[in-house]
Design goal:
By secondary structure, the protein is mainly beta. It has two helices and 19 strands. It is 5% helix and 54% strand.
Length: 289
């Protein structure tokens, strides 16, 4: 029997917190694994694998020898115990050397589109009528993506939302002041930060911009950071901002990273650290009761 699947789309949420900017990866390794839990041989043809970013309306189709070329998947083996089958696995290596996989990852896809043909028992009845299938042991496909942290980032902006509720404070109110962020940055990238105030439905109210940015750690001749860089950032709380703070239910934290040493790719090592301390410097009105 022959079956066709797709074009179908599946969600890909790895980059959900990235909202803007660009990323240039030095190397990407993808292992496309087909695991067969069915007691039949199969011949699979992957006709399409496309990365899609619906937010920017940009897409890129995989350019690799696997596209349009059939490959065989061996049958699973029945064990007559638990688990009932031993899966067989077929691994397809997709790298920056044999494909355009880095371009697909760098557009920060939130969807993957695929289409394939499956030919069951292409060699005929070679098992003596002993084919088998178990409902809980299907034919599965897994996409394992690995990219070593060697990269170039330009205003790569990550965003995260957290809740606030200053109205819970019944005994006083902030009149004026600042939020002060102290950073000891051991990473070789600059980072700028802004805070978006949101209502309970995450509708935008206003932005609190910072004076200054987190400076990147200096690089030596081997493009390695060996010491931390100190920075001080101030978020000024004007009366208008304070009023918005008391109206807000959520705050969206936006952090934009840009690597130093461009156009070189910068490696990120596991001993790098970023230490942050936030201090409130307020004029506060207290209600004495």
């Amino acid at each position: 029997q022959q079956f066709s699947f797709g074009p179908e789309t599946t969600d890909f949420n790895v980059f959900d917190k990235i909202i803007s900017g660009s990323l240039d990866l030095d190397q990407v390794n993808v292992n496309l694994v087909f695991e067969n839990g069915i007691g039949v041989d199969a011949r699979l043809t992957l006709n399409q694998l496309e990365a899609v970013n619906t937010n920017t309306s940009v897409s890129a189709a995989l350019n690799h020898s696997i596209i349009g070329n059939a490959f065989n998947i061996n049958r699973a083996q029945q064990t007559f115990t638990v688990p009932e089958v031993n899966y067989t696995a077929n691994n397809i290596s997709i790298t920056t050397n044999n494909s355009n996989i880095d371009q697909m990852i760098e557009l920060f896809p939130n969807e993957l589109t695929y289409a394939m043909n499956l030919h069951v028992n292409p060699l005929g009845n070679i098992s003596g009528n002993n084919d088998f299938v178990f409902k809980k042991h299907p034919l599965k496909a897994n996409l394992n993506v690995e990219f070593p942290l060697s990269l170039i980032a330009n205003q790569l902006t990550l965003s995260n939302i957290t809740s606030i509720n200053l109205n819970d404070e019944k005994k006083g109110q902030i009149n004026s002041g600042n939020l002060v962020l102290f950073a000891e940055n051991g990473y070789p990238f600059n980072a700028s930060i802004s805070l978006d105030l949101l209502d309970d439905a995450n509708n935008y109210i206003t932005t609190i911009n910072a004076t200054g940015m987190i400076s990147g750690a200096p690089l030596n001749s081997n493009l390695r950071a060996t010491s931390k860089q100190s920075s001080k950032i101030i978020f000024q709380l004007t009366p208008a901002i304070i009023n918005h703070l008391y109206q807000s239910k959520n705050v969206r934290i936006n952090v934009a990273f840009t690597t130093l040493g461009q156009p070189q790719h910068i490696k990120i090592y596991d001993d790098y650290q970023l230490d942050i301390k936030i201090v409130g410097d307020f004029s506060y009105k207290v209600n004495a009761e």
